[in-house]
Amino acid sequence: MLKKLIQIVLPAMLLAIPVLAQSKSEQGTYAIRNAKIITVTGATIERGTVVIKNGKIESVGASIAVPKDAKIIDATGLSVYPGLIDSNTYLGLSEVGQGAPGTVDTTELGDFNPNAKALTAVNPGGELIPVARMNGVTTVLTCPMGGLISGQCALLNLDGWTQYDMKLLSPAAMRVNYPTAGFGGRGGGFFAALVGGASDQQRQQRERQIESLKKKFEDTQAYAQAREASAKDKSLPPRAIDLGLEAMIPVVKGEVPIVVYANGEKEIKGALELADKYKLKLIISGGDSAIKLAKELKEKNIPVILGGVLELPGSEDSAYDESYARAGELAKAGVKVILTTSDDPADVRLLPYHAGTAAAFGLPKEEALKAVTIYPAQIFGVDKVIGSIEAGKLANLVITDGDILELRTKVKHLFIAGRPVDMTNKHTRLYEKYKDRP
Questions:
Q1: Is 115 helix (H, G, I), strand (E, B) or coil?
Q2: How do 30-37 and 71-74 pair as beta strands?
């Protein structure tokens, strides 16, 4: 019986594999016609065409010749946007955060894990990835968590058979958590007030961690110099390879940015001093108190990846719109703002609503859109590849029936690297299953 079952099922499985592979890897020629095209970096085209070929945008404009072999998408009444980018996630590293530890691979033991690579741990088959795509998110920065130096972040497209198919850039950044005393995260001021602030022991531990962090950068500089000296002068004894310090060399050379998670004024100021001392390419993540250091951030041209706009206020005395208005205040002060969701991977799908709320509370609408498209691409050095609709860029495109930052807007078509992506996900499957239940 078992043998007969295998004889029936196995050929069917083998026949299905080429079909799946073909649909997954298809980078044909497409023409999106009669669409409103929001290019982000240029003028909006009220009625135009985007031609996609070999995974890239071949041409875009109001009067574009359509190739004879192109598959036509009539986008009359629809709008085309570049794919959205979430710059603060651990999507792919965690599936069920509570209750299923086997699905979580976000954190290594110890304070220093610069050689930990998010890319190697990403699960491309996770259910949260198609859920994230449903509102137009095509790209994310996913990072390890925990410790002082968590590891190497990867910039991923949200489509691919493997994590290496999904890779846009790795390492895209090094994740660093600036030491805090006591309650240093979002809402920390409220909890600190309840217990009377940080204790002397907590403050001393913070100082030790800061010194330890500085020593790691100094050790890396010395290690890099020794390696270069050995390479130039073969008479010198070779330096033993240290994988952790090896991973830090591009950081101290300014080739890879550090994304420093820092919310409090002291932590952000400490991160600025760290970057100045060791000549680091700094990006602030979190940034609850960034407005207090807006002048320094602007002068040093340091961007801020703001924590979730839809978060609650940081303390009971804070204004109700503290989180909503923060992006607008920073942008008005001249700081480059990048918007993100909370770091819960299940919330990545909410990215356009974070940007839309920021736009409703003072951030110019054009800036809100740039904060989830071209600005993230710029800070990670991939703005020649993604982030706007321009000829030659990767065809990460979203076709919607309205303003992508509006809650009621629906995504009609999605392209990642020139491939049309199936919008089916766990949410849509459950909807279809139960919508007609008696």
A1: coil
A2: parallel
